[in-house]
Amino acid sequence: MSKIRSFAFAVAIGLVAVLVAHDGALAQVDKPGLTGGSVVGSTPGLSVDTNSSSMRFGSSRTPQRHMDSSGRPCVYVLGEAKSQVVNPKLYDHVLIVNNSCSVPVKLRACYLGTDKCNDIAVGAYTKRREIFGIVPDAKDFRFEFREYFN
Q1: Fewer CB near the terminus (10 Å): N or C of the chain?
Q2: Which parts of the chain are beta strand (E)?
Q3: Ramachandran sector of residue 71 (left: φ over 0; alpha: ψ -120 to 50; beta: rest)
Q4: Could you tell me if residue 36 is left (phi over 0), alpha (psi between -120 and 50 degrees) or otherwise beta?
Q5: How far apart are CA 5 and CA 107, in angstroms?
């Protein structure tokens, strides 16, 4: 009987150690599921400066990405600005998210250096257009995104 109790005690101690280590790892993440640095993008009219100090998620960490079997990122994000028909001085900022993998991916996209963010979910093998914002007299914009993992 004592062998069973000592085994159960050892299993309980191991379980507690795993849970404590897991909680410590979560404390290092900005938001549950978001890890690593961000990927920066822009509309075609702007250059992308990946060393920008205004990056919200931090540029020092390597972005964690979902990868396909060839080692290429599953998700590609492009920025596009379209002027509105009624008022051509108003621009719809649109993110085009293309997922080329068999798993759905959720990401968090923000205007570069701001707290103006959107969560976007894109299904497996799908392309999605998401209105990111409506802005007067600003045809071009920069953005950054991170993928959720969990």
Answers
A1: N
A2: 39-42, 75-83, 90-99, 105-111, 117-122, 127-136, 142-147
A3: left
A4: left
A5: 46
128-140 pLDDT tens trace? 999 989 999 888 9
**CA distance linking residue 67 with residue 18, whole number of Å:** 28
pTM beyond 0.70: no
CA torsion 73-148-122-99 (nearest 10°) is 0
CATH number listed for the domain at residues 34-147: 2.60.40
| Structure confidence by residue, pLDDT tens digits, 31-70 | 555 555 678 877 777 766 655 444 444 445 667 888 888 9
